[in-house]
């Protein structure tokens, strides 16, 4: 047999076939669009999270440069610059620090810097310019506002600068301003090169002991790409003749940006769900398309088309539909992802402010690749069916699947299907009785009571005729219903009151901003002044007022603890450097809590005994930080003796009552590497460390006065350097979290639901079209229109009912497994409750669709007479 090898003929056949099936193509394009929406939204959100995380780390580190080399002399910097191998390089010279009293909580550095260096510090003027004349200065608004200075370029300001212990107060002309970033570790103030050289001459010798910090050169470097930055920096140092341990390194935004296992699994699961959901509908469309046109492919094979050419025809159809659906889906998905990004960031990164996310071409390229991969996977099996069909089987093909156990038999003919329907609809005796009563058609489809269940039985048998197709539709609907059910379960399981109890220890919890600020190392351990305590005591409805004290101190190591730390030191654990092993001491954070706070600490070993605690000879102990070495047990156990050293060098021995710690919001929120935490009775703390102001305070107010207390406390926070966690702030955070889950889960459920419904509509419509000859013959032999409609409705309802049963059973089991996540259960005070509410709400709508779809398309199918339908099918 001759094979047609003309590619132009293949292209022409593909085009004509697509024009012939416009309605089916529209459904396929819709499916591809929905799948692409899911992929592009996921990639947009995922890329946005990584970008926001990187931006956050850049803000925390204070620089966007990929690498920095610190404390250079100018000749050393020139060697680095001459070594090459980078894309951009610039330098800044440390001149001094801001010395105004209002800048105590806003660390400010004064430097001279090149344009690139200022940009990498994210401190480049947005109004005005960098200093050029000797007495010009560029200052962020954050610093100007703190000092009470004008922020208009051209203003004359006095700016005090501390240079190597010497205070200078010079008058400058403000030449540039920008907003400043409160998250940055230091605010940058730029001065001119001439002024910097005058007060802090650039160092010409290597930095070392006795060399002041001022005048040193800091190099900021960007490489052509982010691959192996550590190796590139090491090579640059070697070419410049600098030692490997030269201070500096890679920006944490590039070296430490990592995604935890939970996030990776979440992304993988989402990708898998989208891939499966898209595959279910796209595969089903191509599968039905190929089976409906199987006679066409058989005829092509008869005239010489090879199996490979038939696969190419199906593939060209798939790629043609993808060329329309994927771009539209990418654009829509990017818009959806961009809208969802702020909510996802709140969930994963615990931050509510971030810069606008600029789309990366790689994000849309990745989404397009996955969408195309889904289409390609979906087309392969139908393509094989088209390629492997024999011309003889194609002519007799009616959509029936091969019967198991009879591999050599041909598929059933339409007349055999009609005979099967007739055997169900009536029995021989009923037929004879009906023929006697009244004349009917030859096959006698009547309306007796015995036949009232026939449409339902026929519908179930029709589902069994192609179980694979039925499973695909049911799974598609099941996925969307399960996701919606899971989202509702999570949202309804959040408990506000319980959440507030887990996140705070009272109605109001106040501490200094340095304690609450993540990444802030200079903690104010006495941030609550006496004036604030007095003000709180005058609040109406005050029912409780408790304090927490904190001090950084030392503990004498026991023999066992000393042996353990010495072993860690031998293993090369550099964190033991914090311990003075020669003197046998270890750093610690000592706490004291008044009232009942210590009773509500989290205990992991031993028990708290209030009577023994009152004796003043017991402490609660906890290791201060995780160890990087092997840690089979705590350094101290309940019953061990521990000696603490006081502020004046006095020492006192205590017994460890239990292993535990205060809630994190009541601590300094800092851990000492290989250090410890202890909780002391209040009197013992005062004897060791003297009278101190509290680290934080907790107070409760009667419910009737809570709103008034909220307003008063908020006013106090505005006028001080303190921050407060209260019922209202936690309530707002709680509502935002619920909104996040609602937006993400609801959006994903909506799109998956659309895919499921579209898949359902597609299989019902194509099922009717595929079986139009069979339906016409059933009408010809006497099956009434009402019976046929009931049969089609029962088929639709069977899909919906099966998916609903699965969603209530297996879907709820899957929801329960998802809700076992530790973050959801612990952080958000979640309690699982079995529910069928989402399924119950969706079921009437789906059943309505199950009735409407077959009726509408059956009506169109029956527009012509039975004779015409039999002639042209």
What's the domain count?
A: 4
Structural class: alpha+beta
- Rg calc: 38 Å
Helix proportion: 40-55%
**Residue runs with pLDDT of under 50 for 5 or more positions:** 399-422, 424-432, 434-450, 627-632
General shape: globular
Number of strands: 20
Question: Approximately how much beta-strand content do the residues carry?
Answer: 15-25%
Integer average pLDDT: 77
Largest sheet strand order: 2-3-8-5-7-6
Distance between the termini: 30 Å
In DSSP terms, counting alpha (H) and pi (I) runs of 4 or more, how many helices? 30
Major sheet details: 6 strands, mixed, barrel
Secondary structure: elements and pairs:
Elements: H1 7-20, H2 22-61, E1 67-72, H3 74-83, E2 88-98, E3 108-113, H4 115-120, E4 127-128, E5 136-140, H5 141-147, E6 156-163, E7 166-178, E8 187-191, H6 193-199, E9 217-222, H7 229-239, E10 248-250, H8 252-255, H9 261-292, H10 294-302, H11 307-349, H12 361-388, H13 391-396, H14 414-425, H15 428-437, H16 454-465, H17 467-493, H18 496-503, E11 508-512, H19 513-516, H20 530-537, E12 542-556, H21 559-570, E13 585-593, E14 602-606, H22 610-614, E15 618-623, E16 641-645, E17 651-661, E18 676-680, H23 682-689, E19 696-701, H24 706-718, E20 722-726, H25 727-770, H26 772-780, H27 785-818, H28 822-827, H29 837-861, H30 866-872
Helix pairs in contact: 1-11, 2-9, 2-11, 2-12, 2-25, 9-12, 9-17, 9-25, 11-12, 11-25, 14-26, 16-27, 17-25, 17-27, 17-29, 18-25, 25-29, 26-30, 27-29
């Amino acid at each position: 047999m001759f094979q047609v090898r003309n590619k132009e003929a293949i292209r022409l056949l593909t085009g004509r076939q697509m024009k012939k099936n416009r309605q089916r193509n529209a459904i396929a394009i819709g499916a591809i669009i929905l799948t692409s929406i899911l992929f592009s939204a996921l990639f947009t959100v995922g890329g946005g999270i990584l970008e926001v995380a990187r931006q956050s780390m850049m803000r925390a580190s204070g620089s966007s440069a990929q690498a920095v080399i610190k404390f250079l002399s100018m000749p050393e910097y020139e060697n680095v610059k001459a070594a090459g191998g980078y894309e951009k390089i610039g330098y800044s010279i440390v001149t001094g620090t801001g010395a105004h009293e209002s800048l105590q909580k806003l660390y400010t550095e004064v430097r001279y810097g090149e344009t690139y260096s200022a940009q990498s510090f994210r401190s480049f003027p947005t109004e005005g310019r960098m200093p050029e004349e000797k007495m010009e200065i560029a200052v962020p608004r954050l610093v100007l506002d703190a000092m009470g200075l004008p922020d208009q370029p051209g203003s004359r300001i006095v700016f005090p600068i501390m240079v190597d212990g010497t205070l200078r107060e010079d008058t400058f002309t403000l030449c540039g301003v920008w907003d400043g970033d409160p998250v940055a570790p230091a605010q940058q103030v730029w001065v001119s090169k001439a002024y910097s050289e005058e007060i802090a001459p650039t160092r010409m010798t290597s930095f070392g002991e006795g060399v002041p910090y001022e005048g040193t050169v800091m190099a900021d470097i960007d490489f052509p790409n982010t691959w192996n930055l550590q190796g590139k920096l090491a090579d640059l140092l070697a070419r410049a003749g600098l030692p490997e341990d030269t201070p500096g390194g890679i920006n944490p935004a590039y070296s430490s940006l990592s995604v935890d296992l939970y996030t990776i699994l979440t992304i993988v699961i989402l990708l898998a769900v989208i891939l499966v959901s898209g595959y279910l509908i796209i595969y089903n469309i191509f599968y039905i398309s190929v089976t409906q046109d199987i006679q066409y492919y058989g005829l092509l094979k008869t005239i010489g088309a090879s199996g490979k050419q038939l696969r190419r025809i199906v593939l060209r159809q798939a790629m043609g539909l993808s060329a329309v659906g994927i771009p539209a889906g990418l654009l829509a998905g990017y818009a959806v992802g961009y809208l969802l990004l702020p909510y996802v960031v709140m969930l994963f990164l615990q931050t509510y402010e971030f810069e606008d996310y600029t789309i990366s071409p790689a994000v849309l390229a990745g989404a397009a690749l996955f969408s195309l991969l889904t289409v390609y996977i979906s087309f392969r099996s139908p393509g094989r069916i088209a390629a492997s069909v024999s011309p003889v089987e194609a002519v007799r093909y009616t959509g029936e699947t091969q019967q198991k156990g009879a591999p050599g038999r041909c598929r059933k003919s339409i007349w055999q299907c009609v005979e099967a329907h007739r055997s169900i609809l009536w029995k021989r005796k009923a037929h004879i009785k009906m023929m006697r009563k009244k004349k009917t058609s030859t096959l006698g489809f009547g309306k007796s009571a015995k036949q009232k269940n026939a449409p339902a039985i026929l519908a179930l048998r029709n589902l069994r005729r192609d179980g694979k197709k039925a499973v695909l539709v049911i799974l598609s609907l099941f996925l969307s219903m399960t996701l919606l059910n899971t989202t509702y379960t999570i949202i309804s399981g959040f408990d506000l009151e319980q959440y507030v109890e887990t996140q705070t220890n009272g109605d109001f919890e106040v501490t200094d901003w340095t304690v609450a600020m993540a990444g802030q190392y200079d903690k104010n351990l006495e941030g609550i002044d006496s004036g604030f305590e007095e003000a709180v005591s005058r609040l109406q409805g005050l029912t409780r007022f408790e304090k927490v004290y904190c001090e950084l101190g030392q503990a004498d190591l026991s023999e066992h603890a000393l042996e353990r730390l010495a072993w860690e030191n031998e293993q090369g654990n550099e964190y033991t450097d914090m311990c003075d092993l020669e003197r046998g001491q270890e750093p610690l954070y000592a706490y004291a809590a008044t009232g009942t706070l210590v009773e509500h600490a989290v205990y992991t070993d031993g028990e708290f005994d209030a009577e023994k605690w009152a004796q003043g000879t017991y402490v609660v102990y906890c290791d201060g930080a995780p160890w990087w070495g092997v840690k089979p047990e705590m350094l101290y156990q309940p019953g061990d003796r521990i000696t603490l050293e006081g502020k004046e060098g006095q020492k006192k021995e205590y017994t460890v009552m239990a292993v535990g710690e205060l809630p994190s919001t009541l601590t300094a929120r800092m851990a000492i590497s290989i250090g410890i935490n202890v909780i002391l009775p209040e009197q013992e703390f005062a004897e060791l460390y003297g009278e101190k102001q509290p680290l934080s305070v907790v107070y409760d107010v009667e419910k009737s006065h809570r709103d008034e207390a909220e307003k008063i406390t908020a006013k106090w926070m505005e006028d001080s350097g303190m921050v407060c966690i209260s019922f209202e702030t936690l309530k707002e955070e709680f509502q935002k979290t619920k909104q996040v889950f609602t937006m993400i889960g609801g959006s994903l459920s909506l799109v998956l639901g659309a895919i499921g419904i579209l898949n359902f509509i597609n299989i019902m419509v194509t099922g009717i079209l595929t079986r139009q000859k069979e339906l016409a013959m059933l009408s010809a032999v006497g099956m009434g229109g009402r019976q046929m409609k009931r049969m089609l409705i029962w088929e639709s309802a069977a899909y919906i009912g099966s998916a609903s049963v699965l969603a209530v059973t297996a879907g709820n089991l899957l929801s329960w497994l998802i809700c076992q996540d530790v973050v959801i259960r612990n952080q958000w005070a979640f309690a699982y409750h079995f529910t069928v509410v989402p399924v119950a709400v969706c079921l009437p709508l789906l059943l309505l669709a199950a009735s409407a779809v077959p009726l509408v398309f059956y009506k169109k199918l029956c527009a012509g007479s039975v004779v015409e339908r039999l002639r042209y099918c």
